[in-house]
# Entry
Amino acid sequence: MDSTWINAPAKINLGLDVVRRREDGYHEVKMIMQSIRLFDRLTLKKTRTPGISLTTNLHFLPVNEDNLVYKSARLLMEEFGITEGLSIFLDKRIPVAAGMAGGSTDAASCMLAMNRLFHLGLSLEELKTRGVTLGADIPYCLQKGTALSEGIGEILSPLPAAPDCYVLIAKPGFHVSTKFVYSNLVLDENTVHPDIDKMLDCIQNRDLHGLCHNMANILETVTIPAHPDIALIKQTMMENGALGALMSGSGPTVFGIYEDRKEAMRAKEICRSLPCRCFVYVTDFYR
Ligand code: ATP
# Structure
């Protein structure tokens, strides 16, 4: 086998809490992660020319060691002394810097594909140990599905599949800095924390309405005041049949949960016409 390809799914956060800020500056989180069927695709080919050559359909993305795909490929090539060359084409579909872990899922998928292509024989756990050195979300992106993520994101507990539904994604045309959001998050005795445990109960009981009712993301307390359009997208989704709507990660992507596909498609068109110029997409959970 000289080439292979892999789909890298995006994630949303059905719930996101920041439990505390650690002395070392890292944030301890409690998040419910869910993969969705919105994919980047990586195609990997062995080449005679040594080294890594990365290309992508998005001209503004870095194709050197600033790209997480490049970093993950180099990590495995160095550790396993791979002397053949590797060319990687990254077909990006997941909006960039959107709160959907696009870079992390690409890195995770690159490692999975290289494990296959070069017969590295690494187990999922062994890949996770290597992945976490590049990013706290990479272990989850290797595992995928529904999971509780704790610590700085690296402590993962798989959860039963979240109930079936349709997901409307709306990514407005502006950018949010993750660093800005975390550094402006106020955590004190007045902070209202999302009830992640209640959400876990709803997932166990396959209670979609209860799950949607309890969905919350503490980072909205920072991102929404800075970008009120996020509240407008949420409101638009809720007024158009969503059981729940929430910002994913540090934003700006908003997702809405629907029981009915037609309703999700109708809401998609309404969100598309909002002035904040959203990328819109209807999909479902990736198991
Ligand atoms: P998260 O949800 O983990 O915070 P995100 O979806 O907000 O991630 P990414 O799409 O992963 O953000 O990209 C954030 C930054 O990382 C971008 O500005 C981009 O330049 C850089 N980057 C590096 N590698 C990649 C990649 N493979 N895909 C997208 N962005 C990448």
